[in-house]
Amino acid sequence: MEIDRHKNQFGNQAENYTKYRRPYDIDVHDLFSSLLSKSATKILDIACGTGKSTEPLVKNGLEVFGVDIDPLMIEEAKKQAELKNLTIQYSVAEVEHLPFEDDYFDAITVGTAFHWFVNKTAMDEIKRILKKDGLFFVFWTLTTKDVPEEDSIPSEIFKSFNWEKVPVELRNLEHISEFLKQNELENVSTARLPFTHNDTVEDQVGLMKTASSYEVLSEEDKVRFIDAIRAALTKNLGTREYFTYEEEIQVCYGFK
User: Fold this and answer.
1) pLDDT for 202-250, tens place per residue?
2) With 0-12 CB in 10 A as exposed, 13-18 as middle and 19+ as buried, what is 175?
3) Which residue, among 140, 114, 115, 134, has the nearest Cα to 1 in the 3D structure?
4) Fewest 10 Å CB contacts: which of 55, 106, 164, 179?
5) Correct CATH for 3-145+165-198+246-255 of 3.40.50.150, 3.40.50.720, 2.40.30.60, 3.90.226.10
């Protein structure tokens, strides 16, 4: 996968992000809160997208910021914050060049996006704006139980569209943990937070539209791809109301 090519492909699907990307399970926010210093005042969510990972950070006494490289994602995030009457300071920025002063934040979070910038330049910039003893908290969602063959999208569909996936190691707790240690974060730890959810065919179809590999397809191939996976999932679902998926949020965190 060409990381630089794919990480800039999300803006056109901002509304689908709002509609089809699920909110993160409350357990991840509870864990974050338990690790956050009681004196914390400023939190930054990097690669915030449309705000799914940012909005739960809003609490009394905290200033919450969100940045994303894509202006369309930030536009949608601001719209959602206004609709929900949430005070969040959103801005367009790439992680390698963050528009904040040194030692500015008490904590920095990244939700299902760290794989786009697992590099030293990004980590140096993150550490620059993070206060001493500040918390760096990254997390992502993975399917933990093999999806039964009768419930999965046939691999042939993905192959026929040259569908690219994020390299496995970039969503591997051991790999990310070692990366944080190499970049001099302290007390690096990990956690696994299991949860179960139900999806209809249209939930799954909509979710596929939020993938970067969908956005790089031609307009014709997008239609063909969606038709193919909708047909396969409809056949797989049969007379059931929805699919049930077992997943977990994987968390890796450390302190400056």
Assistant:
1) 999 999 998 888 888 999 999 999 999 999 999 999 999 999 988 899 9
2) middle
3) 115
4) 164
5) 3.40.50.150
Residue 88 CB-density burial (10 A; 0-12 exposed, 13-18 middle, 19+ buried): buried
Note the pTM of the prediction, 2 decimals.
0.92
**Nearest-angstrom CA–CA distance, 172 and 184:** 19
Q: Is 14 helix (H, G, I), strand (E, B) or coil?
A: helix
Q: Are strands 105-111 and 42-46 parallel, antiparallel or unpaired?
A: parallel
45's tokens: 């969510």
Buried b / exposed e across 46-70, counting CB within 10 Å, b at 16+?
A: bbbbbbbbbbbbbeeeebbbbbbbb
Instruction: List Cβ neighbours of 162 (8 Å cut-off, separation of 6 or more).
Output: none
Nearest to 37 by CA among 128, 104, 107: 107
